[in-house]
Amino acid sequence: MSDTPHLDAASAKGREFLGTRHAIMAGAMTWVSERHLVSAISNAGGFGVLACGAMPPAILEAEIIATRALTSKPFGVNLITLHPQLDELIDICGR
Ligand SMILES: Cc1cc2nc3c(=O)[nH]c(=O)nc-3n(C[C@H](O)[C@H](O)[C@H](O)COP(=O)(O)O)c2cc1C
Question: Which domain holds residue 78?
């Protein structure tokens, strides 16, 4: 029996929510969280997050496709809500 049942339960909930081996979601960092870092985190069992930053929609789409080519594991996209093309970026994330 575990001596940290609350931590174990929270960790299991996080793993289930993220669909990952570890309940660890990486913070997105503009210019840093690109395809290679994000796929490495996801391949290692965490939840990598692409930083969209000020990317135009076509660049975000290319980055998502490139990340998918490097990992079959789940990853996320961090969007800046002040981005002038936010609706297009959301649409791309849903494809
Ligand atoms: C270089 C750099 C770029 C960042 N870019 C973003 C970003 O684009 N979007 C965002 O939500 N957070 C951004 N952050 C914040 C990080 O995701 C994270 O929340 C912050 O570094 C705190 O991390 P901690 O909770 O592990 O201390 C950035 C942080 C750094 C250091």
Answer: 24-93
Of the candidates 33, 93, 39, the one whose C-alpha atom is nearest the C-alpha of residue 71 is: 39
Residue whose CA lies nearest to ligand 1 atom number 31: 29
Q: Is residue 75 in some structural domain?
A: yes
49 alpha carbon – ligand 1 mean position (Å): 11
* 30 occurs within a structural domain: yes
For 23-81, write each residue's pLDDT tens digit.
999 999 999 999 999 999 999 999 999 999 999 999 999 999 999 999 999 999 999 99
Residue type, 18: L
